[in-house]
Amino acid sequence: MFYHDGKLQYTVRVDKPNPQFAKLLQQAIGGIEGEMRVCLQYLFQAWNSRGPQKYRDMLLETGTEEIAHIEMLATAVCLNLEGSSSALKDEMAMSNPMVEAVMGGRDPRHILSAGLGAMAADANGVPFNGSWVVSSGNIAADMHANVMAETTGRVLATRLYEMTDDSGMKDMLAFLIARDTMHQNQWMAVLEELGPDAYPVPNSFPSSLQHENVAYSFLSTSVNEVSNATGRWTEGSSIDGKGIFRFEKAVPTGGLPVLAPADKEIHGQIEQGVAPDPGFIDKVKDIIGG
Amino acid sequence: MFYHDGKLQYTVRVDKPNPQFAKLLQQAIGGIEGEMRVCLQYLFQAWNSRGPQKYRDMLLETGTEEIAHIEMLATAVCLNLEGSSSALKDEMAMSNPMVEAVMGGRDPRHILSAGLGAMAADANGVPFNGSWVVSSGNIAADMHANVMAETTGRVLATRLYEMTDDSGMKDMLAFLIARDTMHQNQWMAVLEELGPDAYPVPNSFPSSLQHENVAYSFLSTSVNEVSNATGRWTEGSSIDGKGIFRFEKAVPTGGLPVLAPADKEIHGQIEQGVAPDPGFIDKVKDIIGG
Amino acid sequence: MFYHDGKLQYTVRVDKPNPQFAKLLQQAIGGIEGEMRVCLQYLFQAWNSRGPQKYRDMLLETGTEEIAHIEMLATAVCLNLEGSSSALKDEMAMSNPMVEAVMGGRDPRHILSAGLGAMAADANGVPFNGSWVVSSGNIAADMHANVMAETTGRVLATRLYEMTDDSGMKDMLAFLIARDTMHQNQWMAVLEELGPDAYPVPNSFPSSLQHENVAYSFLSTSVNEVSNATGRWTEGSSIDGKGIFRFEKAVPTGGLPVLAPADKEIHGQIEQGVAPDPGFIDKVKDIIGG
Amino acid sequence: MFYHDGKLQYTVRVDKPNPQFAKLLQQAIGGIEGEMRVCLQYLFQAWNSRGPQKYRDMLLETGTEEIAHIEMLATAVCLNLEGSSSALKDEMAMSNPMVEAVMGGRDPRHILSAGLGAMAADANGVPFNGSWVVSSGNIAADMHANVMAETTGRVLATRLYEMTDDSGMKDMLAFLIARDTMHQNQWMAVLEELGPDAYPVPNSFPSSLQHENVAYSFLSTSVNEVSNATGRWTEGSSIDGKGIFRFEKAVPTGGLPVLAPADKEIHGQIEQGVAPDPGFIDKVKDIIGG
Amino acid sequence: MFYHDGKLQYTVRVDKPNPQFAKLLQQAIGGIEGEMRVCLQYLFQAWNSRGPQKYRDMLLETGTEEIAHIEMLATAVCLNLEGSSSALKDEMAMSNPMVEAVMGGRDPRHILSAGLGAMAADANGVPFNGSWVVSSGNIAADMHANVMAETTGRVLATRLYEMTDDSGMKDMLAFLIARDTMHQNQWMAVLEELGPDAYPVPNSFPSSLQHENVAYSFLSTSVNEVSNATGRWTEGSSIDGKGIFRFEKAVPTGGLPVLAPADKEIHGQIEQGVAPDPGFIDKVKDIIGG
Amino acid sequence: MFYHDGKLQYTVRVDKPNPQFAKLLQQAIGGIEGEMRVCLQYLFQAWNSRGPQKYRDMLLETGTEEIAHIEMLATAVCLNLEGSSSALKDEMAMSNPMVEAVMGGRDPRHILSAGLGAMAADANGVPFNGSWVVSSGNIAADMHANVMAETTGRVLATRLYEMTDDSGMKDMLAFLIARDTMHQNQWMAVLEELGPDAYPVPNSFPSSLQHENVAYSFLSTSVNEVSNATGRWTEGSSIDGKGIFRFEKAVPTGGLPVLAPADKEIHGQIEQGVAPDPGFIDKVKDIIGG
């Protein structure tokens, strides 16, 4: 169960409302790098958690914290929108086309749909999408999904930090950026705890069942003789310690694919032939030259 | 520029067509863990690459390989669907409800829309979504997105491996599982090359600007006195080596949020008040008790 | 800020795991009638709330409760999936096509993507969509959105109740159905408090500005002489008490729409003409006969 | 069957084309509050209607009227776009960055994809989504969905009214706002006709089967002692007249959720354990400490 | 404006309700090949029509007819679902897993969300998407979009025809298939009327501005010496009569792409360098080796 | 399998970076008319190809070429974004609201999410959608889908050409416009090869099974006596040569649809009645008046 106290985790202050910045902040709410994603991702991972209890508990702790981050950002959007519709109206009514342009950097739905409130959408107004919530049932894969979410999330937050000179907004973002630092470290700490034997993920699939001969080969698909794509990944021991990196030219070993004609019920064109009616095939053989 | 030879990277053989398995394979094509995502992700990262040339080259090498993986899986879907529509017709026409059920495990659009072919969709027929293609402009974040894609991708492939007894399909999947092993290692090798100073990502944002006091604190949101969520992430040096993990109870420091009434143009209800028209507020004060 | 205790609001018990029912339960998690929608809707309405403080507080209370409902349903999905993948494997491997069909009623992504866990998606695997989260900035419109969510939500829950004979699941659903009863009443109580002057929503738009002559007319678009569509809405005082219902045949008063040819830069076909270049129009006049 | 006469239901006049306003109007066409949603919603409810014939007839009458509303708005978009691409070209070519900004408030796809026409999308260019079309099979739930659609729809229309000074556009919107007034009343009239016994929706589910002890309790999830969230909904008779409102602190009665380890086929990490293979569990017990 | 008479354009009769077939029919309602798409596409093309009036009139005629087709198919879905929920309940309650599978071929939302009604979604429950509604502002491109919609639509209808033995359903589909025949011919008739000078579309872009040297060349991207991809399109006069088809090996003439380092505000990794701050670049030169 | 050489098919040169134009270019990458769609469409059609081999080969040739077009456009987006974030920061920080507006025409995610790179999205930031990838299994329908894609694609490219005065961008677009010319011709060449007997598509469905009496009738749904919608499509031989065009007034022959009450488990309102429980119906007869 969940509880609340109505207070903000950290101060949200806007010195000068800026509807354009409100739009940018939406990316941190409902964008793929945003707080709705990490919040729901950690909560679903907790609820679906099978295995050591401490991971479930930890995910629940942090998933709950992230609700407060959405709350802070939603409040920041609201404060940045205050007074903005009156200004917009005046601008829209002016005859000067330059003035009319002011609404450009805004999300019009902040006025039309949300009445000066935050939305479950990204900086372009594209709605939050549940497919971004990754809970795979494999804890190592989940932790990598979480590190990924926090790295792209912190990159987003630092970009937002650069896009504003509002000291209140900078202060709030500096708080969120610090939390992203912790969360990056937190999920990496789980990976450290799982240890090097976690790889390749999943570690419960016997390596002997995979095609070992291509499990540590960098396959070059370049038509050029010499590749510039060499590095740590083309020589030395593999990162998982279970193989030796190799550089190879990719070659096709699978031959040309051959598909049968489609069943009659599919209603391709006659020229495509049909299966498995040999009579029909005889009839159209001349046409399709097959 | 890109080239092709029409051949498969590895053999695709289906001993016994199985339209249900064709549906499952769609997840590996157009699902979030699938090959379309990694293919486009690596190619966009290559095309957008700013920085050391070898990373662009490597991304292009592997992004190109992934096109061949989509090709293999699409071929596998086609082969698994052969002869399946005739059977379906017979089943649909039978009076036995059990028999009618056979179509249950299928994707009906494999027949209705694709005519026994593969689609750019997942195992539930949900279309591939471009939002899954992550290219952040930060190479460390991108590499984490790639490791994540390959761990969830390999988990998916091993589950598909378990879901079939077709030796041809198992053989193809064993090949793809091996390639996922390499690709996990490959992106981790870049991270190793970038070194421990890569964290927190982005490493170009001065740490002094973030709220250092919460940058390495595990904040517990539990109402319980004692937490079970302790571990590597609550004590010792942080993974990025730049702080010491701490355990703290989360407390709100931001106070209650206060929003102004909305502008008149927003047309909330009268009872909500309006801004910035003080006359209007006076008029409705009794009603809203504010 | 938000807190948790890791416990379930009400018991979640599954006597006999049923992966088909797990799929149905997803509609109550990530479907448009589901708990993710109401949870986020109430929280966003709270965070965006401008006006009397008690409404913000109430929305926050109930929005927080709904997180616990998602938690219960996610747990129910997990419990219904236990042991189901082993069975599926056996079934898939059997030669009897009837047996292979068993997987039909399942969401394959419960295995492939979530590893026997719940997802942020509906009963067809379609991801949760942020556009469903309605927070309009008008409290009466918001309350109607909430009543609607709780009526469709309770209808869904009663249908799920009918679809299972598992006593644990029936017990959990009976709890959720009761909460939906309360929440329907709760939002209607706000509407009662706002009173009859709340309509038409928004009540802050002066009625004199609308076309009063069609504000209370039922317009019949039927080509038939006599309409069967009469009722309370075609006679008597209007529900908002501000007009008299009338029945009228709809008639077009707007004439035929006339659009100018498109600008030259749009590159329609020559036959469509262009604006505002009269020379070009002269040249193609014979062709388009305009 | 359906018929048309090619005329507009009401005059659509644009005194001064404004591509920015064309973008805003898209919300009223293809947005969640827009006319496509209500049109399709009423038509699907009519086509799916089971029960008294007059409701089907009424829904068909009004669903058909709404097609004419989309027609009016599409025409308004077209008229607002006339001459706008030529201007845009000039602006794009100018070196002054201020001038380049003019295109900001436009939907670029009005030019690129629609050639100065309307689209089935919202004000941000997000496509219309069929999930918004609610037809639940329960007439009370459907009517509430319709009231909700007309309240958010009228709020949207009044905001658009504020955003323009074009007298033609104001006149058209004043017509649509009046129709929204009627339609709000119309659906509420059905609810009045259904009477107070319609609640809780669905009224066909025996109340005795729900957990009556929580069916009329406002559950407070606040960690604070005293709640500010009291009101009509915490005391007195419930709105449906079937209970007494109570205020209670929410408490968890469901205990901690316990999930079994996942099946082996799911390929979690070894550290997560597997079910139902006891041998495997024994083998990894030391590692996972479970 | 639009009108209706409540009657079906053609008889909809279901001899034996079949919920599985109801699911398949959804593709013809809300799928990309379905009637919602063509209906809205023709109506939007009519409303956006600039140019000869007769095309607007014709699009309006046929767009209006298509509403009646959605109506027929929605009715067919409803009739196929009658009595199906009772059966489902019984099946779900049985202990035999084979029996439980019966629900496999159904769309569960037909029960859970629509209460035995049709939905604005495809055969997998994926919602109708407004992006499918093509209205380009170029009449030749629009007509090609329409021919495409009617060819894929008729292919879909014939596949549905094969999937049922219900004589009522076959009769209804035979009617719709005939209408698709007419509509294919109808849009091709417009293209015939526009004549051969319509190509390449748009014909209002001066051909001299395109790179004529590659305007009629089939570029082979195969790494193989000899191509099997020759045909009508590699020799002879081009179809538009304005060039001669050629076969050429594709060669890259654009050189290697070179991107500058990203701006500092973007916060890539230090190793990626930044622009345009040369001092920063000096500082990290050793690291990135650039 | 696929290969690459890292070079661009044609020069991509940007004389003056323009982030607004970068946004417009996104439509040609990830929009429905864009290169991702045609690329994936041709590749999937090739991989799914059943029938004459040469069509598979040709589709593979051109699908591979289209990857290079995405590459060119992604490079163009990157080059147009260079240096743009620094400028944006300065603009955002300025107090002049006119200046703040500059960001209007940009896609904010080009900075926030992609770090000055291209995305798999359209000009409004709406993600690429896999549903646009049409591969029907019928070669004639596929070819019409391809002609449609290339006509709308070329229209888009010519509009982009008009929107820029950058000579590098014009040169690149002139190359792509020429390739669209070839591809339009190429798919029409296949249709020419298939010959007039390809229609109506699919030609494998016996025409005798469709309702021939309405297969060549233009059905007028206008309530007006005289139609202006006559033309080539209302008289003379049909385009497929298999019928004679007729003009007819549309009339409903299907009568009024009659649906049974819903099953009890569906939980409509009592007033809607239920099936198949006659006792229940008796009980509520008075209420519903049925």
Please give a structural write-up.
Chains A, B, C, D, E, F: Belongs to the manganese catalase family. Chains A, B, C, D, E, F: One of its GO terms (molecular function) is metal ion binding. Chains A, B, C, D, E, F: Its EC number is 1.11.1.6. Chains A, B, C, D, E, F: Keywords: Calcium, Manganese, Metal-binding, Oxidoreductase, Peroxidase. 6 copies of one chain form a homohexamer. Chain A starts with a strand and ends with a helix. Chain A has helices at 19-30, 35-47, 53-81, 84-93, 97-100, 109-112, 139-162, 167-194, 278-288; strands spanning 2-4, 217-220, 246-249. A two-stranded parallel ribbon of chain A has the order 2-3. In chain A, helix 2 (35-47) packs antiparallel against helix 7 and helix 3 (53-81) packs antiparallel against helix 8 (167-194). Chain A is mainly alpha-helical and 290 residues long. Strand 1 of chain D pairs antiparallel with strand 1 of chain E.
Q: In what range is the share of β-strand residues of chain A? A: under 5%
- What does the largest sheet of chain A look like? 2 strands, parallel
Biggest interface, CB < 8 A: A-B, 123 and 124 residues
Rg calculated over all Cα atoms of chain A:
27 Å
CATH superfamily of the largest domain in chain A: Ferritin, core subunit, four-helix bundle
Structural class of chain A, by secondary structure, is: mainly alpha
Instruction: Kindly report how far apart the N and C termini of chain A lie.
Output: 66 Å
CATH architecture type of the largest domain in chain A:
Up-down Bundle
Counting structural domains of chain A, the number is 3
Spatial shape of chain A: extended
In DSSP terms (H or I, runs of 4 or more residues), the helix count of chain A works out at 9
Strand order of the largest sheet of chain A: 2-3
Share of residues in helices of chain A: 40-55%
* Total E-strand runs of chain A: 3
Question: What's the level 1 CATH class of the largest domain in chain A?
Answer: Mainly Alpha
Order of helices and strands of chain A: EHHHHHHHHEEH
